[in-house]
User: Fold this.
Amino acid sequence: MRILPRTVQQETVDKLRLAIFSGVFEPGTRLVESQLCVQLGISRPSLREALRSLAAERLIDIVPNRGPSIPALTWEEVTSIYEARELLEVEAVGRCSQRISAEQLQALEKALSAFEAAASSNDSLARITTAADFYSIILANCGNPILEEIHRGLVARISLFRSRSMSLEGRAQSSLAEMKEIYEAIAASDEKAARKAARKHVLKAMAAAKKSMDSGN
Assistant:
């Protein structure tokens, strides 16, 4: 009855997700199952389970009789995701500023420091994961588990756009400055400033994503 801590399926999901984030697969690319099985060294049933998980995160499309592919989103679809992100994160940051404990505030500061180190490096995946960690602490301390749950459903796609926008020169450092504003407002329990900083960050990220898409990155 003992379950291994990491299954083949979960490891496959993680590797494919990171490959998508890092641009190994371009938007519109069809994924060939036989090739992926050889590359990953796994069986087709394990691969298909992993692909279904990624489809649930909306990172891939599975079309009957065509197989899995990387979706090529329109700007209108991307805009909808950023609008949802703005609604969720502005609310979460505002609520967090009034609820976070001293211990959790320290954890948030540590997550910000980790992003700062990643922003100064050339490790694009570290930037994505540390930014996600920063927001996961905010969401966990917003006092609304449903808001956190809905946001979690967008995390994969937010990370995908984050990886593309972070590829722009200077964007990582700009993100760091914006996230520092969010942290400082939360630390000061200033709800108005926290909401303003969160909105500014999402809108700047959206503008960077648009620039990235226009340039073909």
